[in-house]
Amino acid sequence: MDQEIEDISRKISEESRRIREEAERLRGKRELIHEVDEGDLNCSFTGVDGGLIVKKFHGIHMVVTRAYAARMSYSENKLKEVNYFPNLNRKMKLYPSEPNDSNKKPSLLRALEEVDTAIKSIRDTKTDYLLMDGSIVPRPSDKPRAEKEAETVYKRLIEKYQELFTLSQKEGVQVVGVVEDSKARVISAREGIDTIDTVLLNYVLRSGERTETFSYSRDVSNHPVLRSFPREISEKIKGTYLKVVEEDRPLRIEYLESFKEPSEITRDLNAVSKVSRDYSYPAPLIEADLRAKLTEKEASMIVDRVRSRVGEDSLLMDERRNKRPFK
After folding, report:
1. Mean pLDDT of 241-265
2. pTM beyond 0.85
3. Of these four, 38, 63, 183, 241, which has the most CB atoms within 10 Å of its CB?
4. Which of 169, 181, 161, 168 is nearest to 241 (CA)?
């Protein structure tokens, strides 16, 4: 084991040195780096996130979801008001799922509720920004392949995204996706560097800096997800990387080109994301996550209610791996 530890430690050190050398070269490309404007917050953000738990039994799975929207309003850099949509007593939703269903279906159901909550929150309350946890559109890996039921959910999800983008344009709301731990390789691949963007840019950017903006895809007509959207939407989806604090990696920011310039978007996100010296993420999304998060106890309460009506049934027997008499 000592030799394996020595080998992997040496490999990590060599990889880090290589990336730092490439980062130093990129640091000299001034067109890549932009300083983020500073200024007081005088706007409102609505962060949307969802929780998910899948309870697996021998003959059926139960998918439990819940989504929340947390709206934070700022004036002169001070938090003035916090609201929740629909309220703090948001009920969970329960969906049945066959054991052989696509493993993508539960995450698609959560995403569907998140986007639906985002739409309803915009209709219910005026806001300047709508912040989505994660990418602004489904990821290519989310797209199901030849699973009929999951494909139906995915189609509904795309329709809901289109409804969200159309409504946001109508209501003057800037839609932004914030990816916490992006593994994308847009800039690193363009520069011929074999690593993920956030690893590379962590050494390139200083706090309060962002990269130049880029298109979500260079070929929207052949992109597995963007080709499902009208071109007037897919061609407007852009991205940038923002380093908020010195001791944390950059955030990947995705946005729909509409009313606000990238400089304004990153200025406001930079101000609302300074959580601590070594952690950065928008406060409204943190709040939405805390409210939406589901516990095993909550999910088990729902399962118990189902069992109380159905009784003992082979479909609801625990899987053997979860009922072993030994640990």
Report:
1. 95
2. yes
3. 241
4. 181
Give the pLDDT of residue 326: 64
Domain 33-320 part of CATH 3.30.2170? yes
pLDDT for position 218: 86
| Structural domain boundaries in the chain | 33-320
pLDDT of residue 327: 59
